[in-house]
Please model this.
Amino acid sequence: MKANVLFIIFLIFLTSVFDTVNQLLLKTSINSLESNVNSIKKAFYFIAKLLFMPKIWLGFLFCCASLIVWLFALSKADLNFAFSADSMHYILIALTSRIFLKEKVGLWRWVGTFFIVIGIILLTYSNA
Model:
């Protein structure tokens, strides 16, 4: 396998890690708020509370970091390869949701995640 392909996979993995951290921060932030928004007044109050949460801003920083790394990865790889390899998000989200958010991840979700891993491996070797 070419070193360039490994570097591209590393960049895409880093993008997935940054995006996963972003999603965890956003999810934990939104879970800490009351989501009973049934009027315009409550919607504005809800948004105002979100804007003053440090985890939301930290999530945005990780989102920006993910975008920067993604753009760099796209400059090095074909879009078809990069977008397919970006499926690592599914793996990381399933794992971190289970570990950090204590969400239940059923058998079929793990089976699907396993097939995503197989697909990423096949994709990697098809580009080598």
